[in-house]
Amino acid sequence: MTSTQTDFAALTGIYTIDPAHSRLGFVARHAMVTKVRGNFNDFEGAATIDGANPSQSSVSVTARVASIDTRNEQRDGHLRTNDFLDAEQFPELTFRSTAVAHEGGEDFQVTGDLTIKGVTKSVTFPLEFQGSAKDPFGNERIGFEGSTQIVRSEYGISFNAALETGGVLVSDKITIELEISAIKNA
């Protein structure tokens, strides 16, 4: 990021997340030796940004569970079952912010209610502002990136298998990763 101070007041407005240029992903440890990464390919969201008073800002995101993609159809199919996300009974994951705080510089803390498999827990995403730009089509864009960890068993996702060498097949801690590009509404 540049050393100049961002004029967040100039960014005030209502934004729609551009899913074609954003990523809603996750990382889980597999077999205690590697990481499996995945995405939700079908999601939408909006943000109301009050640059002069960030605490008045808000964010909401909805992801379709059936769109889960780990680049392995058999694993994706298993993740859609009741062992994990139960896409049939709980077709969406949602996040609704309850507080936004500017931590200084380009750093923000967005706290909200994350609902997975019918269970809602408060989580905080540390987000870093990535900048703003006018794209070639005249759209005003802003970008944020960040990640946080959740404990999947707290959301009723407890499927696992013990390994002969100790440990388990899938980690209980899951990292949620956000790379967001949002377009200011006209």
UniProtKB/TrEMBL annotation:
Record SMART domains: YceI (SM00867)
Superkingdom, natural source: Bacteria
Sequence ranges assigned to domain Lipid/polyisoprenoid-binding YceI-like in this UniProt record: 14-183
Signal peptide: none
SUPFAM superfamilies documented for this protein: YceI-like
Sequence similarity: Belongs to the UPF0312 family.
Name recorded for this polypeptide: Polyisoprenoid-binding protein YceI
Organism: Jatrophihabitans endophyticus
